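Checklist before submission:
- one chain only
- standard amino acids only
- sequence pasted in full

Submission:
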Amino acid sequence: GTDEESGFMRGLKYYLKKEEAPWGGFSPDGEFPVIHAEKGTLRFYVSDTWEETKHAGGMYLKEIRGGTKVNVVPGYAYAAVDGTEDAEHMLQEARDGFAKKDNISISKQDTGWKIEAKGLGGHSSQPWNGENAIQTLLEFLHRLPLEEGGGARFAGKIEELFGDGYRGERLGIACED
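Returned file contents:
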């Protein structure tokens, strides 16, 4: 394929180096000869920047990342946190009490800790067959005593808006046929 979902389209770039560009093309996302409709897609990128703040006795979010393509349920996500030495105990305690603790791993880094969440990747046309690692990570971060500030505020807002799964109730866009 042309890898059009990622925006890279390496296959098409290679083709155009070897062949003349076609006058047009057709790429059905379903069974040929006809698909009468296709599910709608909303593409957006969520990002924020914030200043790191260090407070005595707390833990703060430095980074959070997840997802590879817009039409894939993310199977992996991670966050980086930092804080005092008490943070390690708080992280383990939060993990031990987390319902999906087998999907969370915590490792010490040079500066702080890396929290990794695993899910089950899948195609976005059937999100119920996957398990969103970003959602799992946000649920876990919500349990942590993160210092108030940009990182915690950002993660909290994303969890508030998207933490209900794939239907979009909290966004006010849930619909059905």
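Reviewer check: DSSP finds four helices and six strands in the chain.
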